[in-house]
Sequence to fold (356 residues):
Amino acid sequence: SEITVGLGARSYPIIIRSGILENIGAELKKRKIAKRYAVISDDRVAQLFGKTLMDSLDREGLDSELITFAHGEANKNLATVGALASALASKGFDRKDGIIGFGGGVAGDIAGFVASSYMRGVEFVQVPTTLLAQVDSSVGGKTGVDIPEGKNLVGAFYQPKGVFIDSLVLKTLPEQELLGGLAEVIKYGVIRDREFFDFLVHNRERILQLDPAVMEKTIATCCLIKADVVAEDEREGDVRRILNYGHTIGHAVEGASNYTIIHGLAVSIGMAAAARLACLKGVLPEGDRDRIVRALDDYGLPTSVPAELDRSLIKKYLLTDKKVVGGKVHYVLPTAIGDTVISADVTEQQIDIVLG
Ligand code: NAD
Ligand code: ZN
Fold:
């Protein structure tokens, strides 16, 4: 499938096709994005798939270099940006050349930020390899790195020239990473698309087995929904906030667990909690709440806050949420499967109830 992210002159395609990794060279040559490419990747992805991508560029006569950094969120920082920029400079990359961000969200965020700033901006292409990156971080143009004071505090909005997605690479993804990505997938159904939610419920087995045709449709639908939301609201106004469904409580759970609960699984807990909250406030029918919680549970995703997590610590994290406006935490609440409302009208007692 091919999706266009509609951003006027900066519109670009997202191409989702099984096996496309071996044909990235041909795709880039056809689109004449740059004459020379730096592929920025973490060591794990480079080890697993670096040769396939570099061979594909080579076959089309595209001059390219693979530049790697050590995997992990801990390396998503300015030191890595500096090291990558130095590597680009020493290899003679100039403003006519392009950068390919190849890997999960960490590689994409770092490579995108380097592309936005190296020589004041060079062409950028994304080849995301985790499910989270394929359905979320590679779409929307947010790039950046962490600093000790907080995550993603230094960055830029920088749109790629194209995103190339191959679901076949997901086969080597650790189970937890796949599940975390699936939480974000289910999120799209709940916030925007009831039919897609039903599709996810009915095709669970095939999705968990990474059936290529079903995965292609799944990833494409998620990208379409995110692209739609981003096109309506590139710089994070009200529309884009619906993407934070499950993330307010999710981030608090992630933080309170000292990041031992990975992002996607914390978001799953957050989505279930927000659905319960919506029901408690009387904006979501019980039947829809139960279907949301059951869908997450059937996928093997967590739907309640672990007993050992300190509730008061979670509540402390809630108040530090980026989306706190005027001292009020804003929650994205489903009003049906496929629709949401944003509400700040939530009492501490209601939070206590849904945290359980
Ligand atoms: P990640 O990039 O660290 O990848 C997770 C791990 O999987 C890494 O060790 C990586 O080497 C490995 N890996 C990647 N692809 C693989 C494959 N196909 N097979 C086997 N292993 C593979 O983490 P992530 O979950 O992809 O991304 C998280 C990051 O994304 C966070 O830094 C977050 O802030 C960012 N993010 C950005 C946006 C955005 O809009 N820019 C949105 C959401 C998240
Ligand atoms: Zn998320």
Q: What stands out?
A: The pocket of zinc ion (ligand 2) is lined by residues 136, 184, 247, 263, 267 (CB under 6 Å). DSSP finds 14 helices and eleven strands in the chain.
